[in-house]
UniProtKB/TrEMBL annotation:
It holds the Pfam family TIG. This is IPT/TIG domain-containing protein. It comes from Bacteroides faecalis. Residues 53-111 form the IPT/TIG domain. InterPro entries: 6-blade_b-propeller_TolB-like, Ig-like_fold, Ig_E-set, IPT_dom.
Length: 457
């Protein structure tokens, strides 16, 4: 028993030493294993042809795990990249003959492309079928009560309490505050400039004897401290010659002043160049586009006529993100034109048809001039640079890619009404204007007297 106790004591004394040695051994082994694993990250073999055999699943939404099968991918993710419909997909793992990637947001339907770098050369492989992107979107009513319009004295307050009156222009700032105009012409309070933020609606300006008599288009300057607005003249109600007016953030946009006086121009839209800050506006009675130039006679200069002597186009202007294309939505002619712009020389090219057919209304999706619209109105761009357009009398929202492919974005074509829900089930009533902020499209749903939103993913 004494010997046993003695040995037991030695064991207790030696055990901690063994534990330390064992831990050291494990750490060394782990380190060796890490070093060993790093040796397995290798590029694709330069002298062996790579292949792209297939991918799956063939459909899904944001975050879908995409599996690509083939050969000679290597195991180092630095040598491969993947796109879905031209948008970058994050590559999370590659094992020479199988690759794992994550589908990016808003990829839309398109081909899967695999790019493999070998030395200085990058080889592109394209799938033989398209990945079908499943959008997770929903249409809802944000502000106002559908079908109930405000009186001349607007009812402000919470989004669900406030009443609107034919909202027909809309814009958001970088903080997500929404500004819109309730339709109205003349000096009475039947028109108003309003804003919504943090769950509350506030009326900023009413129609009056001053410049603000027929607000018909919005554009912020690059710093968003100045809001420019078109003031649309008509002989029956408007009693001033103001074409473009402005107000400033410093004064909470209530200090509306005249910028351009142009008698009987019936200006419906203003556009700010995204790089130069130049301001352009339309002249409806001439079918022309002008530029603000404080050094020119009267403060403006003519840029071009859209189509010879044709007028009464009821134009809406919007530059693409790069500023090298000006879109001309010709509401009165049921089509969209575009014209190139050189910011270095400050010159435009020749306007040309982009989507829809001149003076032909209807509803058709498709490529460019084969599409049909019915009074397309004030557009916006989505984050991918697509043109989103409220197709007013088709009671829906359309999308046009930069290449001119036209499709349905939301709503039930030719069916007016009010219904929230999935985009293809939702109903609008004469949607008039759009604005996009982050992942949300806001719609001035004129006929329903409310602001709708389409949340994307």
């Amino acid at each position: 028993m004494e010997n046993f106790k003695l040995n037991s004591g030695k064991v207790k004394a030696v055990l901690p030493i063994y534990m330390v040695l064992f831990s050291f051994f494990v750490i060394c082994c782990d380190n060796n294993e890490i070093k060993s694993n790093s040796e397995f990250f290798y590029p694709p073999k330069a002298d062996v042809e790579s292949t792209f055999e297939t991918f799956y699943p063939d459909s899904g939404g944001l975050g879908t795990k995409l599996i690509i099968k083939g050969s000679n991918f290597g195991t180092d993710t630095n040598y491969v990249r993947v796109t879905v419909n031209q948008l970058k997909a994050k590559v999370v793992r590659v094992n020479d003959n199988i690759l794992y990637a994550v589908v990016p947001a808003r990829a839309d339907t398109g081909y899967v492309r695999l790019y493999i770098r070998k030395g200085e050369e990058e080889v592109e492989y394209t799938s033989d079928r398209e990945f079908k992107y499943m959008f997770k979107s929903n249409v809802s009513t944000l502000i106002g009560t559908p079908g109930k319009q405000a009186a001349d004295e607007r009812l402000d307050g919470a989004y669900t309490v406030a009443l609107l009156r034919r909202p027909w222009q809309i814009i958001t700032d970088k903080d997500g505050t929404i500004y819109w105009s309730d339709e109205g012409r003349g000096q009475s309070k039947n028109g108003a400039l309003r804003k919504a933020s943090n769950g509350e609606v506030e009326t900023l300006v009413y129609n009056s004897s001053g410049p603000y008599q027929s607000c018909n288009g919005f554009a912020f300057n690059s710093t968003q401290d100045t809001l420019f607005m078109a003031n649309r003249w008509n002989s029956a109600d408007v009693r001033n010659d103001v074409s473009v007016m402005y107000s400033t953030r410093e004064a909470n946009f209530v200090n509306v002043k005249a910028l351009i006086n142009f008698p009987k121009s019936s200006t419906a839209s203003v556009a700010i160049h995204p790089k130069t800050g130049e301001l352009f506006f339309d002249h409806n009675d001439e079918g022309a586009v002008y530029k603000y130039n404080k050094n020119a006679p009267n403060g403006y200069e003519k840029m071009f006529n859209v189509r010879g002597s044709y007028n009464a186009m009821d134009m809406r202007l919007l530059f693409n993100k790069e500023g090298d294309i000006l879109y001309l939505v010709l509401r009165g002619k049921h089509c969209i034109y575009k014209v190139s712009y050189d910011a270095a020389t400050h010159t435009f090219g020749t306007p040309e048809p982009f989507a829809g057919e001149w003076s032909t209304s209807g509803y058709e999706n498709g490529e460019g001039l084969a599409a049909r619209f019915n009074s397309p109105s004030s557009p916006c761009l989505d984050p991918e640079g697509n043109l989103l357009i409220p197709d007013k009398f088709n009671h829906c929202i359309r999308k046009i890619t930069p290449k001119g492919t036209v499709s349905l974005y939301a709503g039930k074509p030719r069916e007016s009404g009010h219904a929230d829900g999935l985009p293809d089930k939702a109903k609008f009533f004469e949607p008039e204007a759009l604005t996009f902020h982050r992942n949300t499209l806001y719609v001035a749903d004129r006929g329903n007297h409310c602001i709708r939103k389409v949340v994307i993913e």
